[in-house]
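User: Sequence recovery, please. Input:
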């Protein structure tokens, strides 16, 4: 019930700077997203993790293929 998907538009200055001007990749992307799995009961950790990874796997083929390290809490 506390899990969510965040979708952030990439526009403005972020999309108007050339790809070689700063070290930020995927400037051609229109959106960045984050899959957030939250449940206060540790007994649900495996199910929440499985759900988030499944959602990521379903979306990944439609993505630019990378990740913004600012969205990573567990590289696994």
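Assistant: Recovered sequence (76 residues):
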């Amino acid at each position: 019930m506390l899990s969510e998907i965040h979708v952030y538009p990439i526009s403005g200055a972020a999309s108007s700077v050339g790809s070689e001007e700063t070290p930020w990749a995927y400037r051609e992307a229109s959106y960045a997203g984050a899959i957030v799995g939250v449940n206060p009961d540790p007994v649900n950790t495996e199910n929440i993790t499985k759900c988030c990874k499944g959602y990521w796997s379903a979306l990944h083929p439609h993505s630019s293929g990378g990740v913004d390290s600012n969205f990573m809490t567990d590289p696994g």
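The CA atoms of residues 33 and 75 lie 16 Å apart.
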